[in-house]
Amino acid sequence: MTSLPGPTPKKLGLVIDLDICVGCHACVVSCKEWNTGGYGAALSDQDPYGAAPSGSWNNRVHSFEIEPDPAASRRQGGAYGDARIVHFPKSCLHCEDAPCVPVCPTGASYKRAEDGIVLVNEDICIGCGLCAWACPYGAREMDAAEGVMKKCTLCVDRIYNENIPEVDRVPACVRSCPTNARHFGDLADPDSEVSRMVAERGGIDLMPEQETKPVNKYLPPRPRRDRDDTSMLNLAALADPVPTGFLGWLDNALERLG
Amino acid sequence: MHPAGSIIIFTTLSGMGLGLMALMGLGAIPAGGGAALAGAALVFLLTGAGLVSSLFHLGHPERAWRALSQWRSSWLSREGVLSVLALAVFGLHAGAMVFLDLNLWPLGFLAALLATATVYATAMIYGSLRSVPTWNDPLTPVVYLAFAAAGGTLAAALIARLFALPGAVLELLAVVLLVAAWTAKALWWKQAPARGFGGSTPESATGLGGIGRVRLFEAPHTSPNYLLKEMVFVVGRRHVRKLRTIAVILGAAVPLALVLLSLAFGGVWPLLVVAVASHVAGVLAERWLFFAEAKHTVALYYGHGEAHGRRVAG
Ligand code: SF4
Ligand code: SF4
Fold first, then answer.
1. Taking burial as the number of CB atoms within 10 A of a residue's CB, which of A45, A113, A128, B21 is the most buried?
2. Where residue A106 sits, what CATH number does that domain have?
3. ipTM here
4. Helix, strand, coil percentages in chain A from 3-state DSSP, rounded to 5
5. CATH architecture of B5-311
6. Is-above-0.95 flag for pTM?
């Protein structure tokens, strides 16, 4: 049934920290790697080694340049002074009021009543593409080889998988992120780690005006620390270290020798 | 949005076919005789060609029947169910007209109602998408219904004149509906494309507006992907202006002039053949623009809609 299930007891989703993502695309690659052999059809590539490669991916990283608004900057005590780059991973937000689900004519697209994950049943998908049109975020991609709709499954085949070690029972993107910019959890539970992060850091919804109620949240970049703040780590000193301990004694002894 | 040939042909042909179905259901063409047969054949030809064309848009056409299942929530599913019902009811009605010389009015009215509902459902597939603010306009279904009515009436007039039946009323109605349809379209052109991204911006799309102006620094991929090919179609302003002119000339001016000529000379069917063909060509151009001019909010993640800098207009 492609009618939405209404409020779900669990709201599983991701929290993505835009303050620390370095734009390495590790999550993009590990997502493709896991999902091309996992749920449903493989994520195909067209002309992968040619002049114009393309393919289906469930997760992509954009990079944006932000030119600070002087007023906002002043409110933050000049903290947003310079232009900055923000790396921005984007995948399905598993929206509570997902517009991609009710438009599906076949019942292939659905939102799970138990945990809120939005999935496509590829066996009955006719590849009409209407769900991808209905998603304001561009989170669904038609697979050119299979003719069915692909999207983030929140690694539904990992998170409940008792055949893999417990530490691996998180989405592949979360597991692979080298900076720990991605977090997975239940956003319906106010005491979960992800919910607390969202509350502390002022987590944001993408395009709230579309009224999709995204489950995934983004943590905004923190204001910059003041450059003249002397408590900041002195990076220059690290390049020319002053030896301490045994090395310091040796250094001094050699120095004295002459 | 990418203007896909299959959908453009489908909405144009099936729109005219369903318009003709509604008119025949309302008794525009008398029962019995060649006119009823020709009219019914044209209805099935136009809607059939449209439906077959729409299958080319699917990744799995062999599963198309599954699209009839979700009519509770999906306009696309409703369109499928309604078109099947409309064709079935009209089939009975047309059978009675052709073979029994009978005009079964309740059946005809029902067919007309179902045909109208089908066109409305088609329009709402597009009109209900908030992610495409250009289409999310109350006039979208009005335009689709008006074009179906005008095209259907034009076709009905042609059939009436072809079989030497009285056609003046149909010709006059065609003139009125053509003017109405293009007036609705002119209003749509004035307001719908101006909706832009419907108030969404790169700042709201990224949630980073609190810091300042957001510009795309680097796209996530180096060559176009499905999202860009399907939903980020850019058409030059000059092209839009030219195509609108072509659409109005072929879809409105030529058919209007020819219908009025035919009317003046008491019914000249060859003129009406050209009028119908020209109208179809004009509506095809109009439909191409309907897609090409439509903006999808995903473009905001790809450097469109930026307040200053490069691709401002998107
Ligand atoms: S992000 Fe897009 S695909 Fe995912 S649930 Fe929301 S609307 Fe649907
Ligand atoms: S592409 Fe598949 S999942 Fe999407 S709306 Fe069509 S049938 Fe449903």
1. B21
2. 3.30.70.20
3. 0.94
4. 25, 20, 55
5. Up-down Bundle (1.20)
6. no
